Amino acid sequence: MHDFPVEALRSVELGVPDIGASVEFYTKTWGLQVVQQDADKVFLAGSGDDFHILELKQSTRAELRKVTFRARSREDLLKLHSLCEEAGATVLRAPQALTAPSGGFGFVIREPQGCVLEFVHGDLRRQPSHTPLVPVRLAHVNINSAEIEALSDFYRNSLGFRLTDRSRMMAFLCCNQDHHSVVLAEAPVNGLNHIAFQMPDLESVMRGSGRVVDAGYPIGWGVGRHGPGDNVFAYFVDPHGVVIEYTAEVLQVDESYRVGGPQDWVWPPGRTDQWGIAPPKSEACKKAQQAVGFSAP
């Protein structure tokens, strides 16, 4: 298996203009659990062993503040730090013991196109609850990029990710056996496209989607099955315009997986997924996928 220095996508931090409304949505509707609340930040967990998978912070607008990855070892973490510096990333926090509730040792950078990335090792874990219909962990984060090839090079050369597929508009990158943990989407501006939450199974995607619809949030795209990654999906827009996805059955890959190109991921006219049943993505969802930027430098 590829020698990945990053072993997993752990969590994301969002800035939101009404933290109370976001906490209510992500607990009562999306299925997460508050595990820690500080003066200006709330930490939410899924049913897996990550201490938290989502951080919410009060902000003047919806924004992606940080994406956190877990390094395989302390040695790998320090090597990642050196490679990020060599690639021109801005170091926002040098390697040190972290004061967040999840603890651990880590560092924070801003990659060349503006997204803040954190790398941790030795962070706290929880006892998994294996709760049905609740997100287990993060599946992937999809980042908009005006220079997708340059950003892909950064993830592969500096962070040790591997390209698994390249469609006409997106590059899919893995750091473990999941087909992708990071997706890069061609876009006119850099920012957040969407965040995907791993559900236990297809049934959980379906019933979870019903719960969100019952709460007044329509499906923005889906339910369907993607091409690259072969995962089931259902997209929604949260109360502050952040696109989020329930997903399951993500393809597991190893060194023998053949990297596909744009010619491998072409659907017949009118089709938007493998099954051919997902309606076109809603205009509200498409607009939201271009509307959330990174936190300001």
Can you describe what's shown?
It is a single chain. This protein is an alpha/beta fold and 297 residues long. The chain folds into two domains: 6-121, 2,3-Dihydroxybiphenyl 1,2-Dioxygenase, domain 1 (Roll), CATH 3.10.180; 137-294, 2,3-Dihydroxybiphenyl 1,2-Dioxygenase, domain 1 (Roll), CATH 3.10.180.10. 18% of the residues lie in helices and 36% in strands. It is built from five helices and 17 strands. It has helices spanning 19-29, 74-86, 148-157, 202-214, 283-288; strands spanning 6-16, 33-37, 41-45, 54-58, 63-71, 90-97, 105-110, 116-121, 137-145, 162-166, 170-174, 182-186, 191-198, 221-225, 232-237, 243-248, 293-294. Strands 1, 2, 3, 4, 5, 6, 7, 8 and 17 form a nine-stranded mixed beta sheet that branches. Strand 11 (170-174) and strand 12 form a beta hairpin. It is globular. The mean pLDDT is 96.
